[in-house]
């Protein structure tokens, strides 16, 4: 493991997803799952999210669309929260999820709206 990239990734991961989400993920990682947490933190958050080519808001917009199209509801809820932290508005999410409905199917779009509404109510937005 590259400690420098891991530390960079952990910083970005906490800034985007929040301490509670990251602390829960790390606390729940046993010996079997910890290598995956290290991998995600180092490569996803440190290497890719840490690149200068796109702003975090843009990365969040992309993530919402891709995760929604892949039908990953748990990750989508997490990234909806992260997108809000990165400045994505509810209005922008409406547009993203309508686009998802057209290109990935209406059921996928419907699930996006349901999950986002849940997150908005939990976060009092």
TrEMBL record:
Q: SUPFAM superfamilies of this UniProt entry?
A: AhpD-like
Superkingdom of origin organism:
Bacteria
Record-level Gene Ontology MF annotations = peroxiredoxin activity
The coiled-coil segments of this chain are none
Name all Carboxymuconolactone decarboxylase-like domain ranges. 36-117
Protein's UniProt name = 4-carboxymuconolactone decarboxylase
In which organism is this protein found? Advenella kashmirensis W13003
